[in-house]
Amino acid sequence: MDTSDEHESDLQSQIEEIEALSSIYGDEWCVIDEASRIFCIRISEKTQQPKWTVCLQIILPPDYPSSAPPIYQINAAWLRGQDRITLSNSLEELYVENAGENILYLWVEKIREFLMEKSQSSMTDGPETSRAVTTEEDCHNYDEDDVQDYSLLKLASSQSDDNFSNFSDGTLDEELPPIQHGETITDRRSTFQPHLAPVVTPKQVKMVLNKLYENKKIASATHNIYAYRICCEDKNSFLQDCEDDGETAAGGRLLHLLQILDVRNVLVVVSRWYGGIQLGPDRFKHINNCARNILVQEGYTDTSEDASKAGGKNKRPKSKKAK
Questions:
Q1: DSSP secondary structure string, 161-229?
Q2: Rg of the chain's alpha carbons, rounded to an integer?
């Protein structure tokens, strides 16, 4: 089968899969951008009053399902740390076990199974476990506003499929980049701490996040907000993405800071431990100040005074000492 025939077969397979999912899940299934093959589905446990819900956002690459996995993002304010890693790993294992086949139905049901286990565990462990998202300043139930801006996902789909495949065997031998930790900022019992790592592939981003979550203190943070920018010099473009981790809009603000400073090939994570007192807009100031401080510390940009004078433009990572 030549390439054009294979792509036509993939497209037909996608059409049939989407029709089936729409029929099975009804209103839970949502078409965001049919031309760009962007969809989302609201998934909850099978109970009368579900407490655990996630939104699975999906882009279908042109060569899915024959040779590429869906690009996906799982959004839920409560899904952090080891829970997020466990769920992502289970989806990737399913893809590997069923490579070349339609995978979305299996993914949805795997997530639902995960939510049911989470629900049963919360009932067994008592009310302290079931509080889930009540520590968030902006906690809210799922609605249409939970569907994030898809411009970043569209950017992802326009890049090389190899770069965005979390399952590519060719990236398994990549080394874990060095991770640096910055100074903390404390305000009204909330503590913020930045972490930074140089990255050149999304696989490295995932490796760094997994490594950070191995630290029990970081994994227990109320939020781990992150953003990254990777320069694709051959295409004169960037791979970039961000994650709020329950701190609504914080990831997008952090990514905007990286864009203003024009830093590249770097991942910045800001951990926040909530102290019980709401900070309002000050929390975004602390998150961005943490990020800026560690970028200056590691030589990715000038001091805040110099950056202000230059308007934050045309910055490149400075050469750094060997660590």
A1: HHHH-TT-GGGTTPPPPP-EE---EEETTEEEEEEEEE-SSHHHHHHHHHHHHTSHHHHTSSEEEEEEE
A2: 20
**How is residue 69 annotated by DSSP?**
P
- Short-list 78, 63, 252, CA closest to 164: 63
Which pLDDT score is estimated for 304? Answer: 44
CA distance 63 to 143: 31
Residues forming beta bridges with residue 38, ordered by sequence position:
33, 59
- Biggest CA pair distance of the chain: 64
Between CA 107 and CA 73 the distance in angstroms is 12
221-238 pLDDT, tens digit per residue, is 899 999 999 887 665 678
- Identify any residues that bridge with 187 across adjacent strands, giving them in sequence order: 190
Terminal C-alpha separation, the chain: 50
pTM of the model: 0.49
- Looking at residue 198, its pLDDT comes to 93
**38 pLDDT above the threshold of 90:** no
CA 80 vs. chain centroid, Å, equals 10
Bridge partners of 190, per DSSP, are 187
